[in-house]
């Protein structure tokens, strides 16, 4: 009996280490990713694209935010392949180092006035490397969390790496707000103040590296490797047998990503500072508070996903999100901080509810042998379709119509697309994730085929 108790304590301690490692790692990854978007909203148009003219420079600045998404599938393909062949943990460390190095180098780039066309080209190349890293990191983080967790707590466990996104946004907005507050918003900030948040990534890399190296490999992959069951070319198997799941899972992500990138992509920050003439520091602080609400609602969603199911939690979240896309700009267009806070905080509730269940549901959709490839590629494609050019599209709609109503309509359409995809998938809460259950994992994920996993299996709990 004592041995059993010790084993339970050890398992619980290991799960806490995994949760801590995934949340720290993803926070660092997304801090790096979002600090770029904040820079694009505040300074990159002026420093790297100014010769194109004010309006075109702003569009080009936001376009570089989106172009990196086109390279997420490359990161997802590479990390998915090697994650299914050599393991989850190794890919987590590699993607973390790649992201951190790219971010740090952005902090030392020359501007257009110093290097001419070489400056925006180098900026774009480093942003592409960020995209490759982001495309590969997410799948490894969520599988480490979900595959280590008991079946009854996968929703909450999967929410921990998801929490890294709002935490990364909170950290990025907070650090940039400190810099705009401490440094003159004029010449000094444009010369060196904006670089500091990028250079801080060096410290974060070191912390994240040691945290992630301390975590054991996923037990599911360890079992696959022990039996020599790795799929040689998992991506080919994925697209030959499960292409429809990749499409549906990607579409599930579209609505959350399009709406989320109104803040994480910097559109609202840029709109509030340039169009509404609000103070940059105050706007960044509002984004920071909204990120805190996003964090809370993501955590709540992970708990709800275990209580009422992944699908039900998603539908509640998307319904709330759909109701908020027009009030978002009604509040923001009041032109005061109260309206900005209200719009962003209310929007963040729906964002969290449609992000918290994602890790567990994605992991339960795909068979163990191609799971890393499946979740990574679905996430990357969904990010392209939803968030890649959301800030650019929003800016173009605003310039073409002169109204934010068109932007809200665009966000509503994206949300409705995701609701349709959610309705096409089954909730697979509790299905075994190990390699001995590949046949069960490979069938019954959509409402269009036989339901082979109607009764949740609690064997892994």
Automatic annotation (TrEMBL):
Keywords from the named record: Cell membrane, Membrane, Transmembrane, Transmembrane helix, Transport
PANTHER family with a match to the protein in the record: SHIKIMATE TRANSPORTER
Record flagged with keyword rRNA processing: no
GO cellular component terms given for this protein: plasma membrane
KW Signal (keyword) present: no
Chief place where the protein resides: membrane
The Major facilitator superfamily (MFS) profile domain, residue ranges: 18-432
Residue segments, region Disordered: 442-461
Membrane association type: Multi-pass membrane protein
Protein name: MFS superfamily transporter
Domain of life assignment: Bacteria
Signal peptide: none
Compartments in which it is found: Cell membrane
GO molecular function: transmembrane transporter activity
Residues that span the membrane, as ranges: 30-49, 55-78, 90-112, 124-146, 192-211, 242-262, 282-305, 312-332, 338-356, 377-398, 404-425
Pfam families: MFS_1
